[in-house]
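Exercise 7. Given the components listed, write out the predicted structure of the assembled complex. Treat all entries as one system.
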Amino acid sequence: MNTASIINSISKHVSLTSKEVLYLSSLFLPSKVHQGEFAEKAGEISKGMLYVNSGCLMSYFSDKQGNDHVIQFATAGWWTGDLHSLTRQIPSIYTTKALAESEVFLLPSNNMDKLLEMLPTLEHYFRILFQNSLVTHQHRLMLAFSATAEERYNDFEEKYPALEQYVPLKYIASYLGMTPEFLSKIRRRRMER
Amino acid sequence: MNTASIINSISKHVSLTSKEVLYLSSLFLPSKVHQGEFAEKAGEISKGMLYVNSGCLMSYFSDKQGNDHVIQFATAGWWTGDLHSLTRQIPSIYTTKALAESEVFLLPSNNMDKLLEMLPTLEHYFRILFQNSLVTHQHRLMLAFSATAEERYNDFEEKYPALEQYVPLKYIASYLGMTPEFLSKIRRRRMER
DNA sequence: CGCGACGTTGATTTGCCTCAACGATTGTGG
DNA sequence: CCACAATCGTTGAGGCAAATCAACGTCGCG
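Answer.
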């Protein structure tokens, strides 16, 4: 397990010397998360940002009635992490679980601070990262408020066809803000046409 | 109308020389938007990021049935803008309208590029800006999926008590993803207790 | 003054949820 | 290698939160 993928992702936006690559690589902690196990847990302060090297993770929170709500999936090449918990150093409300055998790099929050101090050009990388994520979130919010459950499912399939191989339908339903029962009924209606 | 407020906002995160302040200030285009008029229009490519110096703006989009959905309010000290339209140079789906007499600074997208090239330390400022906005969006999404209409209204009042002076209830309803009629019923139920 | 925008109210409808039950599949321990 | 439990997707009946539609009073403004 090496940092090639993550370095490659960063190099698309920031040019790095080989020394910088070495320094960068030294700040990421590689680890494996087995299927069904947790990378982060609600109630604990987030350890840092996570880069998914392979496999698939999902983050979710539990509401007061005990229902889980998936807020993000992350496959190879994606970042995940609870920014609120990280920046304020407060307990996270999100749990991050592996949906498959996964290799991840942890960028601990103090390392992230160090990193951005030593290599301020990386601010650009994270600025772009967050900017794109923001666009995605705005789009989801738009759908949540103006689209029916069926339209949201259509949009999801178009955008993330690859996820269906990893993710049980009930989690997709949760991500889309509907019950698994209702998603099932949507799928049925669709087959009948 | 001067750039004091915006410079002040930036200075909280990045230290600037007086030369840099001058350069910065030269890139912002001040303008006034009268109540009911538009700063940006759906269908046009976004002109740039907008900093609200005074007054209040709101951004919304129209779905295919012609219903409007408010996605953001912005009062003094806030940024607004359609990042998707800006980064990809495609027509925006959002319209931005003044809810009161407003003074805004436009940071045209090519100026933003120039700015970040000349003063790369500002990447930090925008990184933080987008990072915080991301946290807010995640929170809204969480509420949209797990809270009732009444809970969302409570949360809104707690978080943005100042907005009620500018914003008609129907827009607050829209922002919260409910109809004005239903918001009215929530308010009534609440008075009766 | 009169018009249009806004907030409100009530009656009715609907999209989606809840609950309960059932087959199919997977995995697990004896 | 089989029996059993657990998980998943599905189906149907019934219920509820919120939308829709229509009507009405109020207010600010041209």
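Discussion: Chain B touches chain A through 31 residues (CB under 8 Å). The first strand of chain B starts at residue 29 and ends at 33.
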